[in-house]
Design brief:
alpha+beta, BirA Bifunctional Protein, domain 2, 16 strands
């Protein structure tokens, strides 16, 4: 018989004479002649209660059915007389599929700290909080794909191993098949690719190539950064959503960014409302108010110079003093969102000196057509720009950045053969999950976080 997921059993419209549930035991309570077993299979936040009485052949061996054990239950779905639950299962047969030692199983019926749960990341999805988080993560990813598909975007796959550094920051993880030579460094010319290779920090450059043939595209995949940072907002491996639009400018870019965040947030709030409610009750009491503003209010759009002026006149003593030409820090971004404008904010037209080579230089020759979407609690959620489509200007910017233009001949070719205005951005998927759940540490929205000196699981 095909098993029934717990979520479907709990939402059944009528009793069922025969049902098969498979999952993991959360608790077992024994009484004279019968036992109550709470079973969860990961399909939803709630458990389903199973009643096992003396007529069930396995009743005599229930002592082995401990918290954490895996079981299969055949029985009938019947109306429950207990409060807070519509249905329960009266077992006719119970099979113990996998035991769990009651003395060593680390997830007992109590609240565990996030720090402790990171040490057992292979088991933390079984907790209410992390089970909910992973369901939200799954639904969020699906909502992203649905958003772009509904708007005619094509999904493209960009390389994970690359010979280019999109951001020019030199924080690539090097990939090699060679041992180091006697001088202590690998020789790229004799390596697998015949040149230095690394894990990608972004799929943007390749997405631009696809956009200049297909129109509107997006990539959604893992990215890597060898940044020795142990902050709650940074990880060495993370996922990026990167749309790219041909025949588009900065205004189009900002419109798409706002629509994406609003649409996906609303979608996940609707489909995962029980899981979101858990975070609103136990993680961030102001979560629903924040998400309501993200979904229902128009976002503020503020030029960089105005943002600097707002921060300068705020009278606040920031850790990083504010001055024109600096890149905004998280404390500045959060002040704009949470204190001054009290809504998501898009800051645009940054000084060209603090932005990468590929961003289009504005007519003032001082700023670039860049934009960052800032949200409460997180700060920067999205960073994007209109791309520099003019061959000569792009080459000049690359030379100013001390880049070897020969390594990017293919990128520059797009500016030689049918160049068009185009724009795009990157949305950090883990930061989106932090925003929608209220979780404050990126290590807790990634199933198996990769951070400096940490490569478990």
């Amino acid at each position: 018989m095909k098993r029934t997921r717990v979520v479907h059993a709990l939402h059944a419209e009528s009793p069922l004479d025969h049902i098969l549930i498979k999952g993991w035991v959360r608790t077992r309570r024994d009484a004279k002649g019968f036992s109550f077993i709470e079973v969860n299979d990961g399909s939803c936040l709630k458990n389903i209660q199973v009643i096992v009485d003396e007529s069930v052949p396995a009743f005599s061996s229930l002592a082995d059915v401990n918290t954490g054990a895996a079981v299969a239950v055949d029985g009938a779905l019947v109306a429950s007389p207990g409060k807070g639950q519509k249905w329960e299962v009266h077992a006719t047969e119970l099979t113990l599929l996998g035991t769990a030692d009651a003395n060593t199983y680390p997830l007992q019926k109590k609240r565990h700290s996030d720090e402790f749960l990171r040490t057992i990341a292979h088991l933390r999805p079984r907790t209410n909080k992390y089970g909910a988080l992973y369901r939200i993560r799954s639904e969020s990813a699906f909502a992203v794909h649905r958003f772009f598909r509904d708007r005619g975007f094509h999904y493209v796959h960009t390389p994970i191993i690359t010979g280019s550094d999109c951001e020019g920051a030199g924080e690539l993880f090097r990939v090699t098949t060679l041992p180091t030579d006697t001088s202590g460094s690998a020789v790229p010319e004799t390596d697998f690719f015949g040149k230095a290779a690394g894990l990608t920090v972004s799929g943007q450059l390749e997405a631009e190539l696809a956009a200049c043939a297909l129109g509107d595209v997006y990539t959604f995949g893992p990215t890597f950064r060898a940044e020795n940072s142990n902050t709650p907002r940074h990880a060495a491996e993370f996922w990026m959503i990167e749309p790219e639009m041909a025949f588009a400018d900065l205004e189009d870019d900002m419109d798409l960014a706002e629509a994406l965040v609003k649409n996906v947030t609303a979608d996940v709030m609707a489909t995962c409302h029980e899981d979101i409610d858990l975070f609103a009750r136990f993680v961030d009491k102001a979560l629903m108010k924040t998400l309501d503003a993200i979904v229902n209010q128009p976002y503020a759009r503020v030029p960089y110079t105005e943002a600097i002026d707002i921060l300068t006149r705020s009278g606040k003593n920031f850790e990083f003093p504010v001055k024109y030409g600096m890149d905004l820090q998280t404390e500045h971004e959060r002040y704009l969102c949470e204190k001054k404008l009290k809504k998501p904010v898009i800051v645009f037209d940054y000084p060209k000196e603090i932005k990468p080579f590929y961003m289009r230089v504005n007519d003032d020759d001082r700023t670039v057509a860049a934009m960052d979407l800032l949200v409460p609690r997180i700060g920067e959620l999205i960073g994007g720009s209109q791309r520099e489509e003019r061959y000569g200007v792009l080459k000049s910017r690359m030379l100013d950045s001390d880049m070897n233009t020969d390594d990017y001949w293919w990128y520059m070719d797009i500016r030689r053969f049918g160049t068009v205005p185009h724009a795009g951005f990157g949305l950090g998927f883990e930061r989106f999950l932090m925003m929608i759940t209220g979780i404050t540490n990126i290590r807790d929205v990634i199933p198996f976080p990769r951070t400096p000196k940490h490569l478990e699981f």
